[in-house]
Specification:
InterPro entries: CofD (IPR002882), CofD-like_dom_sf (IPR038136), Gluconeogen_factor (IPR010119). It comes from Deinococcus radiopugnans ATCC 19172. Belongs to the gluconeogenesis factor family. Its main location: cytoplasm. Helices cover 53% and strands 10% of the residues. It has 18 helices and 10 strands. Helix 2 crosses helix 3, helix 6 runs parallel beside helix 8 and helix 10 packs across helix 11. The longest helix has 30 residues.
């Protein structure tokens, strides 16, 4: 008859207790090894100070020995040496070996005391020591990341930023702020401010605070006057009112939200997006573009008023960038509007950094009906005055049901079929899709920008 199974409240058998102890010891050893490896990783700024501490300690020990041996404490040094010599059997261990052992123990004690002091200070500030180590390691690595400027708006830009966030702390988002629908449109109309919606999404994507990122995107489903607004939109509206405009509140926003990088509006002045159609018609207001299904194609877009200012940090970021990325996002309502700010267009046009366009996956009803991928590139070139140096194109297949669903709404897949030799020469074709969705995968897109695109541009 077999023994009954142990209940959860019964003590472990001796063998089980021994196994558990061994497992704990192994896990503890692995954690300690990992911590040591992280602390000694290149670029942490630890090894140099550790070496300096050891050198200074040894010099101090030699200096103290010189002082005691040649000064009034000579008798103390003599007694100490005789005492150490008496601890070992005469002739078994040389006296200098005993001294080295004592010196090693003293160094170990010094390191231990520094570690405990560091732990006490961190706990006193509410920081877990292990978390602080990971944070330092992460910040050191991120500080060496690529300087990337991303231009656009909508969910496409925020997805890109969330993919870049683990790789670099030098991302700068330049966000289109001409939206006039939904929560953004209501706040624009009532407060005469720029549209905050896309800014909110980008702040959430780059925030180092998971709680703040979640709160920024919270949309109120009830409440007189706030229903339909997101917390982030209301916060930006509050800061705009408090500071006399978002331009003055940028520094506070980055500090409060713990932004990893920078997020700036393309301009801090409210503007209306205007579409000029091929048949001579005009559509005013971004929210009206989708309603133009069945009308003539959009030939060009402009901002009213046209001569809008750009923030100086935006122009500095473009000048210092290692990559300038357009999109992903809607061609005429997310990407091009930011390039219509004269100072931004001039800075991008003359920037030394390569210009990379993340190609849209589908056409958009009422905005890019009937346009090919080549037409998208031509529209950017026409409005900006510079052709992209690289075009990232997805080659992952979409499920048939997804294609059918988009086709029913009037959207069609964009690919390189019929592309010119110039476009094929600058295209980088990679699988960039989220599984089962017509949306770019943030991780795959970030990896493509950081590895594949620069490699292709070098050729």
């Amino acid at each position: 008859m077999s023994d009954p199974p142990l209940r959860g409240d019964q003590p472990l058998a001796p063998a089980n207790r021994a196994d558990a102890a061994r497992q704990r010891a192994v896990r503890g050893g692995q954690y300690a090894t990992r911590r040591a490896r992280v602390w000694l990783a290149p670029g942490m700024g630890v090894k140099r100070w550790l070496a300096l501490f050891m050198v200074c300690t040894l010099i101090g020990a030699v200096g103290f020995l010189h002082f005691t041996w040649t000064g009034p404490l000579h008798f103390v040094a003599t007694r100490w040496i005789l005492y150490l010599n008496a601890l070992t059997e005469p002739g078994l261990v040389p006296l200098h070996v005993t001294g080295m052992a004592v010196m090693g123990l003293a160094l170990i004690g010094a390191f231990f005391s520094i570690a405990m002091l560091n732990r006490s200070i961190l706990r006193g500030t509410g920081t877990v020591p292990g978390t602080a180590m990971d944070l330092i390691y992460e910040r050191r690595n991120l500080s060496r990341g690529a300087r990337i400027v991303a231009v656009g708006g909508g969910t496409g830009l925020s997805n890109l930023l969330s993919g870049l966030r683990p790789h670099t702390a030098h991302t700068t988002a330049i966000v289109t702020v001409s939206d006039d629908g939904g929560s953004s449109g209501r706040l624009r109309e009532s407060l005469d401010m720029i549209a905050p919606g896309d800014l909110t999404d980008c702040y959430a994507a780059l925030s180092d605070s998971p709680v703040m990122a979640r709160l920024l995107l919270h949309r109120f489903s009830r409440g007189d006057g706030i229903e339909g607004h997101t917390f982030g939109n209301l916060m930006l509206a509050t800061l705009s009112e408090e500071e006399g405009g978002l331009a003055e509140a940028m520094k506070d926003i980055h500090e409060v939200l713990r932004i990893r990088g920078q997020v700036f509006p393309a301009t801090t002045a409210p503007a209306t997006l205007v579409a000029h159609l091929e048949d001579g018609g005009v559509i005013r207001g971004e929210s009206q573009f989708a309603a133009s299904v069945g009308h003539a194609r959009i030939r060009q877009v402009s901002l009213d008023p046209p001569n809008l200012p750009a923030l100086p940090p935006v122009l500095d970021a473009i000048r210092d960038a290692e990559q300038i990325v357009l999109g992903p996002g809607s061609l005429f309502t997310s990407i091009i509007p930011a390039l219509l700010v004269p100072e931004i267009a001039h800075a991008v046009r003359h920037a030394a950094a390569p210009l990379i366009y993340v190609a849209s996956l589908m056409t958009e009803p009422g905005e890019t009906d009937g346009l090919s991928l080549e037409d998208h590139v031509r529209a950017i070139t026409r409005h900006l005055g510079r052709m992209p140096d690289c075009v990232l194109v997805n080659n992952a297949s979409l499920p048939p049901e997804v294609i059918e669903r988009y086709a029913a709404a009037g959207a069609h897949l964009l690919d390189l079929n019929g592309a010119s030799r110039d476009l094929l020469a600058c295209a980088v074709v990679l699988p960039l899709l989220q599984p089962g969705q017509a949306r770019h995968d943030p991780v795959a897109l970030a990896q493509a920008l950081l590895t594949q695109a620069p490699r292709r541009l070098q050729h």
